[in-house]
From TrEMBL:
<feature type="binding site">
    <location>
        <position position="53"/>
    </location>
    <ligand>
        <name>S-adenosyl-L-methionine</name>
    </ligand>
</feature>
<feature type="binding site">
    <location>
        <position position="51"/>
    </location>
    <ligand>
        <name>S-adenosyl-L-methionine</name>
    </ligand>
</feature>
<dbReference type="Pfam" id="PF01728">
    <property type="entry name" value="FtsJ"/>
</dbReference>
<protein>
    <recommendedName>
        <fullName>Ribosomal RNA large subunit methyltransferase E</fullName>
        <ecNumber>2.1.1.166</ecNumber>
    </recommendedName>
</protein>
<keyword id="KW-0808">Transferase</keyword>
<dbReference type="GO" id="GO:0005737">
    <property type="term" value="C:cytoplasm"/>
</dbReference>
<dbReference type="GO" id="GO:0008650">
    <property type="term" value="F:rRNA (uridine-2'-O-)-methyltransferase activity"/>
</dbReference>
<dbReference type="InterPro" id="IPR050082">
    <property type="entry name" value="RNA_methyltr_RlmE"/>
</dbReference>
<dbReference type="InterPro" id="IPR015507">
    <property type="entry name" value="rRNA-MeTfrase_E"/>
</dbReference>
<feature type="binding site">
    <location>
        <position position="85"/>
    </location>
    <ligand>
        <name>S-adenosyl-L-methionine</name>
    </ligand>
</feature>
<keyword id="KW-0698">rRNA processing</keyword>
<dbReference type="InterPro" id="IPR002877">
    <property type="entry name" value="RNA_MeTrfase_FtsJ_dom"/>
</dbReference>
<comment type="function">
    <text>Specifically methylates the uridine in position 2552 of 23S rRNA at the 2'-O position of the ribose in the fully assembled 50S ribosomal subunit.</text>
</comment>
<keyword id="KW-0489">Methyltransferase</keyword>
<feature type="binding site">
    <location>
        <position position="109"/>
    </location>
    <ligand>
        <name>S-adenosyl-L-methionine</name>
    </ligand>
</feature>
<feature type="binding site">
    <location>
        <position position="69"/>
    </location>
    <ligand>
        <name>S-adenosyl-L-methionine</name>
    </ligand>
</feature>
<comment type="similarity">
    <text>Belongs to the class I-like SAM-binding methyltransferase superfamily. RNA methyltransferase RlmE family.</text>
</comment>
Amino acid sequence: MTSQWTRDRYYKKAMKEGFRARAAYKLTEIQRRFTVIREDDNVVDLGAAPGSWLQVLQTLTHGRIIGVDLNPIAPMEGVSTLVGDFTTPEVQEEIRGLAEGTVSVVTCDASPKLSGASSYDQARAIGLGEDALMFAVTLLKEGGNFVCKSFQGEDFPEFYAEVKKHFRSVRTYRPQASRRGSREVYVIAKNFRRSGDGA
């Protein structure tokens, strides 16, 4: 009953407040706690559909906001959206153009389609996170920030260690808006160092 109540609570709140998904409150919590987005940042949101994180980003920055997903994202004012695979050079070049060369923050709340096999799903989620990290390493400006959903499990420590190679501050956080029983956790990485040498 508690899990159902929690899900309904945030779902109903999202519908009432005009957000496209309850996930909006996760980014709101992360921003309140870690201030990963500044008011002039250009932000790229990976796996952005249906767009609830883009809606939150609209309230946080006057910079350029770019959402990328394999599925179409319904238009919203002040946001550029792309349908495509963010791991491809073609899509990355298009993003660079939209951001006019400067990406300050990369966010990713994407999840793979779940099969129900926990070890398989966790491995796929880590793989998606690794793709998002490589995107961030490729496009972020020096000092930029990265927020990525992941899932706790045997592969997570290796992913977390890889993120730490590229950012001076790395934390994990589980928002209250996460569903009870979910193994999701967010990696909050700040102050990107382009050398990536761990120095």
